[in-house]
Amino acid sequence: MTSITEPTEPLSVEQLSATTLLRFATAGSVDDGKSTLVGRLLHDSKSILTDQLEAVERASANRGQDAPDLALLTDGLRAEREQGITIDVAYRYFATARRRFILADTPGHVQYTRNMVTGASTADLAVVLVDARNGVIEQTRRHAAVAALLRVPHVVLAVNKMDLVAYKESVFAAIAEEFTAYASELGVPEITAIPISALAGDNVVDASANMDWYGGPTVLEHLETVPVSHDLAHCHARLPVQYVIRPQTAEHPDYRGYAGQIAAGSFRVGESVTVLPSGRTSKVAAIDLLGKPVDIAWTPQSVTLLLEDDIDISRGDLLVPSKDAPPTTQDVEATVCHVADEPLTVGHRVLLKHGTRTVKAIVKDIPSRLTLDDLSLHPHPGRLVANDIGRVKIRTAEPLPLDAYADSRRTGAFILIDPADGTTLTAGMVGESFAAPQPVKDESDDDGWDF
Fold first, then answer.
1. Rounded CA gap, 261 and 237, in Å?
2. By the 8 A CB rule, do 62 and 81 touch?
3. Are 156 and 179 in contact (CB under 8 A)?
4. Which of 172, 183, 362, 450 is the right S-S partner for 188, CB 3.0 to 4.6 Å?
């Protein structure tokens, strides 16, 4: 195992500003080595502070381990350390000279599927780990399905523990072929398979001397070079209004700006825009970015737009190009993942939060529940329980401008909230799910089905 080394000098502000950002998530079955991979990645890329290393060394020594357990860098909950598993999503931020990263280490247990949905919902890439001794198992297929459902553009298959199968190329090739065939059927656009040993450090940051038959990139090399192909700057332009700025000072007596973070696309001065859901139109008179006027702004910049006309606009409204305005609707059909312990039922009264807008809504129907094991659909289950994924039909009290999730992961997503206590109930994706699953089962085939 590579010895613990001191971290290098941190990157300067200028270096960080010149690099791109990649959000990625890890997933895999229990004991596949997700947390060890993350720890190895952070350690070998010199992204760990000295006090963090010392804390891991002390914790490892207290547990009677001869070498530092790098999994402890992300498994921070007491229950996680005691059981040697990941329960909650652990986020880590690190950077190399080529790119900045936001990493989400997600759990592997079936009952924590909702946590993987949380971690992968904003990811540009998902790393799915497989134990080389076990190959592709049910949970591997489940994680591939969730990545496809959330339309994660890039998936890395990390075949771990190659040291325990004597670094055999045939073992890796068989696993890679099986996983690629399954993920491709789901509609995953890009799959990269890498043989690794997270414990020994093979092909994580440094190329392995034990697998000279492999000529591809290491995990870090791939993370540093993979293109963010779903660039939101080229999506439909959307600006959810977060705040209306009216200084009403002597210097700015008539200033009225609409502030928010551009969710997708870009806006230009002089461009015709429509305010949704009202449908009123105007033109962009000016754009303020960090206190300075600019002619163009794009996602994910936080800006203030000034319009030529005095229109009634408030928080929750959506500014869009007039030539590319989404339709508004009160009837929402979506694929959802239920994340709360309380079931979601037909007739459930909820709050639906889309962007900066929150409206009252009611669950009108739950047409089906998805079985991730075989991608079959169970019709009209009546309710969804924690970790369930299914189709829902929702009626909102006010019209909403919704994009399909396939077109925009930012403006095609929403959450359902319990109006009583503010608990997040469900994460939703507008439109169709990842792929055409197996035909809906006939109800007669499900005798004995019980919730």
1. 11
2. no
3. no
4. 183
Classify residue 367 as left (phi > 0), alpha (psi -120 to 50) or beta: alpha
The distance from CA 328 to its chain's CA centroid, rounded to whole angstroms, is 26
Which residue shows structure tokens 């694929």?
335
- E-strand ranges in 37-96 read 90-95
Return the bridge partners of 328, or none.
401
Task: List beta partners, residue 274.
Answer: 281, 320
Q: Decide: residue 367, CB within 10 A, 0-12 exposed, 13-18 middle, 19+ buried.
A: middle
Q: Would you say residue 5 has pLDDT above 50?
A: no
Please check the confidence at residue 244 and state whether its pLDDT lies above 80. Answer: yes
Residues 6+ positions from 291 with CB-CB distance below 8 Å:
none
pLDDT in tens, 397-416: 999 999 999 888 889 999 99
- Tokens (6 digits) for 308: 């030529």
**Residue 407 DSSP symbol:** T
**Alpha-carbon gap, residue 286 to 284, rounded angstroms:** 6
The token pair that represents 171 in the structure block = 């073992």
Q: 297 near 287, Cβ under 8 Å?
A: yes
Q: Taking the model in full, what pTM does it have? A: 0.78
Query: Which residues have CB under 8 Å from 120's CB, separation 6+?
Result: 25, 27, 104, 106, 126, 146, 147, 150, 152
Cis peptide bond N-terminal to 253, omega within 30:
no
E strand intervals along 242-388: 243-245, 257-261, 266-268, 272-276, 280-289, 292-294, 296-298, 302-307, 318-321, 328-338, 344-345, 349-354, 357-371, 376-379, 383-384
Contact 347, 362 (CB under 8 A): yes
Quick: pLDDT tens for 222-239. Answer: 999 998 754 566 678 999
